[in-house]
Amino acid sequence: MLNMLRSENLKYKRTFAKMLAFIAPMYVLVCSLFMSVYFFTNTINWWEVSFMPFIICLICALSAIREKKSGNYRTLKSKDVNLKKMWISKIIVIGYYTFIASLMILINFLIVKLIFNNKVTDSIYINKLIIAVFIIWLTTLILIPICLFVAEKFGTFLAILVNCIGSVVGLFIVTGKKWYLCPWNISNRLMCPILNLNPNGMLLESGDPLLDSSVISIGIIVSIVGLIILSVLTSLWFAKREAS
Question: What angle do CA 112, 115, 116 make, to 5 degrees?
Fold first, then answer.
């Protein structure tokens, strides 16, 4: 498995997918600085609602495109390769690069805090932002097997389309009782009690039902269990497809 992870990681050498983990956080930083008074609020909101799902979708789509250009796994039939482990390694490596992107956004937060401390007046503290960014990373991992499957099965356009639809649907059901049924919505809902932040970018007032902290454990459990189940199911599909 370790060799597969190394091999998969090598595929990202000098690729746009790898650069994306560094470029996207910097882009969010530059855009948010134009609204420096609400820097942290704007940045974390954009990160959870739009950028993190987009990064995952794009890396998955680029992975599928790269494999098709290199022969669409045809050489695997002549080699003794565990296809299930190969698929899981793809998910892990993509998760690794989204973690790098999360670290980059945190570094950006710290830089802004040090340089523009007097201009940034957000009520969100750095320690909460660190927790929030980690939770966003953890709860969006469930999107990797979904996006990777759609990209491999149906192509880049549908992968992006599904991601956009999922993100929009998530915003509509974030206040409902079944919010956890939409994988794109989980991180958005958890930011409500963690940062007192509504997915629309507005700060929540004291007593708002969205501040219920019990959703945090529910969201984390659903995300982890969903990630495991979807990773196993999609790995079985991948192994069956390539073996046929």
Answer: 70
**What is the rounded distance in angstroms from the CA atom of residue 223 to the CA atom of residue 226?**
5
Please state, in angstroms and as integers, the Cα–Cα distance from residue 107 to each residue in 103, 114, 197, following that order: 6, 11, 21
Q: What angle do CA 166, 144, 230 make, to 5 degrees?
A: 90
> Are the CB atoms for 234 and 145 separated by under 8 Å?
yes
Q: How many CB atoms neighbour CB 180 within 10 A?
A: 19
- 3-state SS, 111-129, equals HHHHHCCCCCCCCCCHHHH
101-123: per-residue pLDDT in tens?
999 988 887 877 777 665 555 55
| Full-model pTM | 0.91
Report phi then psi at 232, rounded to 5.
-65, -50
Nearest by Cα to 158 from 146, 169, 170: 146
pLDDT in tens, 33-48: 665 556 677 778 888 8
DSSP string, 50-75: IIHHHHHHHHHHHHHHHHHHTTTTGG
